[in-house]
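thought: fold this chain, then report.
action: predict
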Amino acid sequence: MEKRKLGFWEIWNMSFGFLGIQFGFALQGGFMSRIFQTLGAEKDAIPLLWIAAPLTGLIVQPIIGYLSDNTWHPTLGRRKPYFLIGAILSSIALFFVPHSPILWIAVGFLWILDASINISMEPFRALVADKLPESQRSNGFVIQTLIIGIGTWIASNLPWLVNKLGVSNEALAGEVPMSVKVAFAIGAFVFLTSILFTIFTTKEYPPENLEAFKKEKKEAAFFKDLFLSLKEMPATMLKLGIIQFFSWFAFFTMWSMATPALTEHVYIAPSPIEKNYNMEDAVQKSEYAAANLKYQDASNLVGSAMGVYGLSSMAFALLLTFYTAKYSIDRRLIHFGSLILGGIGFIYMFYATPSTLFISFVLIGLSWGSILSMPYAMLSSAVNPKKMGMMMGLFNMFIVIPQIVAAIGGINILYKLMGEATINAMILAGISLIIAGLCNFLITDKNAISG
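observation:
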């Protein structure tokens, strides 16, 4: 079917739901480790507590991709039913996670939250390929990245902002501050409303032959299609998978370990361990409260600093939006350069001060903007369009497997080869991202490279 070219605002509307999705991811990535530490988790246990996220993605994403490929609702269409279900579940989980009274409940909510976000997110990737002609796909994924950057910056600054507006950042031992609870509630509202905006403003193309589609749907079998898709996986997808492995190992390391690493190394405000204080003694109780407030304030500043990578990725995407609207680009070269700069940003954290930490996140944002657009643009030019949802879901195996490897010990084992200091986890992330950048030269498919 000949697809018409869409205007900027049509692409913007169909991608706007990513604002809410990124609110969910940014709040999760910036503040879940803070919640875990507040509820008593030790630093080395944090990556394993995060394992719910990649495990959920490994299971959910191919299933949702397959189901959305084989769905057609006369009112909602193909992808939008999954946007809606995921948005409702994600909003509920976002609201309740900071109210978790104990650690295992917070871990459970992370599991629910990540599964729900994945239900919404994966069909959004497929929607770009569904709606846009080949010549506009780079532009479509870049506009998604622009919206993701806006969401990352705003959501990362929410706890700091609501604290500045008068909401308390103090809390009793083992309790999450009210500033974080209010921020997550705002995130829940934005998630649902932004998804609804896309649902109401975007129409999907129906199958070219509805009767044939219904027949194929009846004959479809998930495991049969899964194994067939794995067998048909193009070489370009496998090569992109290697790049994704090292890229997402780096970012999972940041999301899980940046708060303990940077509060300790840059802000000199580590999370106090309650059992090291005699809470029956008034002096020690007061010392714990002061140390905890210092940690909570430093965590807000880490979150705000992380928000800079959202601004940087937004600027990167804005520049590419204007350029790709008129000209083709070398996707491989852009991705290579962006990942190398992000790796340098991670390594610079070792030398950063509170006033210069933003430099790291500016560079990391360039790599993040590229990670969210260039691999998907390259992939969409290399796979069967009828299986776009399934292939996008399978592609995310290369996102979740490195996170699982990182969570079950990869981070702790590798960063401790450089020393016990938690900041070494950020150096590890930098090395991983530089390796990812160099792996771009494995890509040789001209259709994938140019777009």
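thought: worth noting. The radius of gyration is 22 Å.
final: tokens above.
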